[in-house]
Amino acid sequence: MQVPASSEDSDFEGPEDEMQVLCHGHGKLAERHVAFEGILTGRRFLCCAEKTTRDRGLRTLMNSFEVHNLTQEKKKLQASYEKLVEDVNALVDAQQRRVEIEKIDADTKKLEEKYEMVKNLAAAQASVIRNMKLKLAEERKNLQIQIDELQKSVEESNVKLHESNVKLQESNLKLQGIKAILNE
Asked: Most buried by CB count within 10 Å: which residue of 48, 49, 99, 106?
């Protein structure tokens, strides 16, 4: 029969001196104990002091192994936790970098759109300028034709005027000749 785990109770502990109960196997005085596990919790009982000491030693040894195992497990869990924290921090950093890259990509896309708009505007302006130059060249050609026609007209007018002046001078000479004849 296994002795249940017990706890100390100041009202009921230590060797059984009053009744002088002896252990059947060892002949030693029994000890008082109070159970604290399962349905026996709180129940007072007497048990062999040697068996209790041996059981306590065994339980202490088992508890030491359990404490050692729990300590090792705690260290492993601590290492796992620290690794998890590192992984989470790395994940958060990667997420932040991704957000920053997405922001840079968005900014780059906006700049590319503005560049395309400016490029299209420059192409449109170049087209307008080219068309205006063609129109100017055409108008210059038309103006040159008109200037040439006017110069030709002026030259013709000058020739006619010169002929008229010559005729006028001839007429003036004839008139002076007639005046001279009349005045004689």
From this structure: 48
Q: Give DSSP secondary structure letters for the chain.
A: -PPPPEE--TTS-EE--SS--B-TTT-PBEEEEEE-SGGGTT-EEEEEHHHHHHHHHHHHHHHHHHHHHHHHHHHHHHHHHHHHHHHHHHHHHHHHHHHHHHHHHHHHHHHHHHHHHHHHHHHHHHHHHHHHHHHHHHHHHHHHHHHHHHHHHHHHHHHHHHHHHHHHHHHHHHHHHHHHHHH-
Residue tagged 């590319």 (tokens):
112
The tens place of each residue's pLDDT in the chain, 184 residues long, gives 556 565 555 666 655 566 677 777 777 777 777 777 777 777 776 777 676 666 666 777 787 888 899 999 999 999 999 999 999 999 999 999 999 999 999 999 999 999 999 999 999 999 999 999 999 999 999 999 999 999 999 999 999 999 998 999 999 999 988 888 888 7
